[in-house]
Amino acid sequence: MNQSVGNFLLQLSLSYEITGEGHVASDNRTTSNYSTLKMSRLNGKFALVTGGSQGIGFACIKELLNNGIQGVTLVDVNVSKGNESTALLKEEFGTERVIFIEGDVSKEDQVEDAFEKSFNHWKHLDIVINNAGVIAEQHWQKALLTNCVS
To answer: Using one digit for the tens of pLDDT, what is the confidence trace for 45-89?
Structure first.
């Protein structure tokens, strides 16, 4: 996963908005003010990212932090990888902008606990990225062909 995918996802979210009636409306902002726009739209916001210790989740967290989000909660079942990733993020972005919470999103009580701890720490949440997922390696190709190619 490279940074351009995270940037694409953020750009996509800035390019389209859901109107009050549930319709997708094009957002006609120019690329010249794109960087300022990204920073202003994330300023003061807080996010929770599941499966954030590596891959797409980690890239999403870095992209959010690079673009001005105030704080991110990294939720992951892998404690050692979660602590390692959180330490890297704190080193790069500051100790006050990232917290790690151990959580297995396949267990409802752990999901509720992660949200409660995150909410108690940041006092609110604005963005949730449900990234955690598992798949056996032998099923990866079939899932990719079914979900993305066909």
So the answer is: 999 999 999 999 999 999 999 999 999 999 999 999 999 999 999
Q: pTM of the entire structure?
A: 0.70
Angle ∠(137,6,47) on CA atoms, nearest 5: 100
Average pLDDT over residues 117-135: 92
The pLDDT tens digits of the residues spanning 139-149 come to 878 877 887 87
CATH code for the structural domain at 3-149? 3.40.50.720
Beta bridge partners of 39: none
Cross-strand partners of 17: 25
Rounded distance between C-alpha atoms, residue 56 and residue 59, angstroms: 5
Q: Which residues contact 125 (CB under 8 A, 6 or more apart)?
A: 46, 47, 48, 73, 115, 118, 119
Tell me how long the chain is: 150
Domain spans in the chain, listed from the N-terminal domain onward: 3-149
